[in-house]
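Write out structure tokens for Luciferase-like domain-containing protein.
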Amino acid sequence: MGANFDREFTRAGIWNWEKPRIEDEIRYAQYAEEAGLDSVWQGESRLVRDAMTVMGAYTQATDEIDIAPGVTNCYTRNVALMAQTFSTLHELSGGRTKLGIGAWWDPLASKVGVERERPLRRMWEYCTVVKRLLDLETVTYDGDTLGVDGIELDLVRSEAGPRDVPIYVGATGETMHKLTGELVGTGVAGGVFMNYLIPPEHNLKGVEKLREGVEKQGGELADVDRPQLIAVSMDEDADRAIDEARGLATQYIGQQPHITKASGIDEERAALVKEELGGWPATAADIERASEHVSDDVVTNIVAAGTPDDVIDRVRDYCEAGCTEPVVYPLTDNMEEVIDAMAEAKAEG
């Protein structure tokens, strides 16, 4: 791949969302902590369970594991409310909270009345103001996408010290990676939360943009933490694991242009997938029809799918391409087995 990062990993996390019972999400966070994993990230990209509420539960059910949304967005929560929320989560968790934040996506944003104008500028301004508020500054900011006038977190009834909540920008495109590097270089952000359903090789361009951005601000790539969400589908029967992953791969290939391009699917088949899926959201029948055009090779290019050994080997490919902490999202109904496999591989690192 042309990369020179370490294949082994000494940190690992899980990504939780959409479990049938919310109690299961809490149990998996506890299980990950007991197994020695380092983080639990709560999904919030669609109108599913509110990540902040679930994270609050994690703070009381765990003792050591880091807790973060993976990721929330910089539009639907007012910048002051976001700082309030993470100040509170910082207290509840004993300082274990991170803020993962992205620029959301259409058509969902437009369907709820949010116009995602100038997302790069919005991310810069939003993270800057949140960081200053968490540092307990009094903030006046007149930006292009938001403005505040003399506000501060009102912590007179709590132990008021700056809230050390690292910000991680959810980035997929090269320009957002460069902006993230600059935010790290200026001391606003702690790192990037790299996206999933892309091949490891896709990381390399993003990492170079991170380097470009952080060095522009006088830093270096080592300053940029780079956890990455990785979809995994694990089964002793490799064919079954690949089949389990095909539906999600199909949805994203048909609906997310950057994933279509990165997946390795040929243009004719990609067009057929998009046609079969129709509009958003796609039905289960639409996905089943469209998935007939998505080969095993395409699935395994963007999902760590196969036997436990296959999965860990593919996760290490992402680390070799720049990921510093794999955060796994099991597509198969075996979260505990996946956690055990990740914990064993982490111990080997």
